[in-house]
Fold this sequence. Notes:
Helix content is 73%, strand content 0%. The protein contains 29 helices and no strands. Helix 18 (362-377) packs antiparallel against helix 19 and helix 22 runs antiparallel to helix 23. Mean pLDDT is 85; it is low at 191-208 and 210-222.
Amino acid sequence: MSAEEEKAKGNAAMGQKNYADAVKHYSAAIALDPQNHVLYSNRSAAYVNMGDYESALADGEKTVEVNPGWGKGYSRKGLALYKLDKLSEAITCYEKAIELEPQNAAYQQTLGEIKAATSNAGLNMFANMFKSPNFWTMLQTDPELKGFLEQPDFVQIINTIQQNPQTLNLYMQDKRVMAVITKLLTSQMGSAPFTPPANTTPKEEKKEEPKKETEPPTPEVEIDPIEKQALDEKQKGNDAYKKKDFDTAISHYDKAFELNPKEMTFLTNKAAAYFESSRYEQCIAECEKAVEIGRSQYAPYEQIAKAYSRIGAAYKKLGDLEKAIAAYKTSLTENRNRATQNILRQLEKEKEKQDKEAYQDPKLALEAKERGNDAFRGGEFPKAIAAYSEAIERDPGNASFYSNRAAAYLKLADFGYALKDCEKCIELDPTFTKAYKRKATIHNYNKEYHKSIDCYKKVLELTPDDADAKNGIQHSMTLINKAQSDPETREIRRQRAMADPEIQQILQNPMVERLLQNLSPGGDQAAAMKMMEDPALKDAFNKLVASGAVAMG
Length: 553
């Protein structure tokens, strides 16, 4: 495998945030091409994401050593130093990176953050004193300070400083805070109290505005005539592109590249024209060539990322989602961009759907079902589950597959998965009686006898002469009577029933509540019998008894 292939795999791993694999692939690429500075730079980025800042620093230094004229190498080294709290060295590195790439806003932003961290270091020294383990004890025992604790605003100020040390500067003019700082310094230094200045903000000196007439004129930047001619051709190409005259645009971009073969944007613009004219293979080829030119000329990462994004868009148009996803992932390793991230997420969803659809085949699903049946008959229930699962993936709309898998789960006493498969089977085919019977069996195992009876009743609605369903109801009633005779089982079933939303709803019915009052000791038994003539009320009462929510006898 070549260094570029290993690098591509490393880039893909970075895109997936699999930094350990990224390091492995970049290391393999370095072994094949040890003078490629980009490989050390990429591995340094991976190490930073892993929190291994020492290794990141070593790779940053190696990047600078191999190519001292590359700004990103200094940024890699600077970031590692920043993470290691070596702020002054980090500032030096970022200043060198900006010197080489003065238009790079990311370098300037990070440099600003490091300088801010440096300027806050001294202030944090004071603020951190407020977090000392003995801080509150000192306040409570010091005769000059303990009175401040009776003032709510003072306590609030101290809490604010402890939570956010950066706010200390806001309270430096508070005499109470200054008294605390003085005590802290005295206790640390073991010497006479030190009184900090009342205002730590340096007084700004007035600067005389330079006279406009003495300002030197800004020199005009001269452009090489050949480069200017190339830019003119590029502009002509852009004008033709806007008019959707893509062949003319391509012609001008070709001329621009002939004049200046070191500029990758001429090729990416040409690729855009190919893309808009539905010539996607040519678009991909031009973008790949542009990336090669761009890397050799240390082009901005945004330009490299844009080329990869265009490759991804072209592959998507060609229907090759796998290559499209790989291209977009590589684009993100060059430059994190929210729009590209959103496109990538959408493509991954489309790919997942496409893979599932490609896998589906009703004929192969039936073959998998038969393998599952054979395994089931042989008592190899895990193997049967695997075969039935394959059948479901190949034909997810076939209800019988879920019923078969539920039977295999039942053999393994995995009632949770068995119940889900029964419910899915019924969802797909509400007339599938075998699924109701298996669901009833699961409810009996769970001591939910009332639900088991409901399942058997549903079977009888579909097939009134079903002997299994009739026997099932009798069996469930027997289990209910047995459970009523065991106090421990009865209490377990009562608690489970009271947590059942269906039972809770029945108990909230005022008519049911009145019926239970009449049936209780001292109640109107005759009125209760009269109420039981209502079929709906009788059915609700029987369900309460079957569930264990109400005990008889």
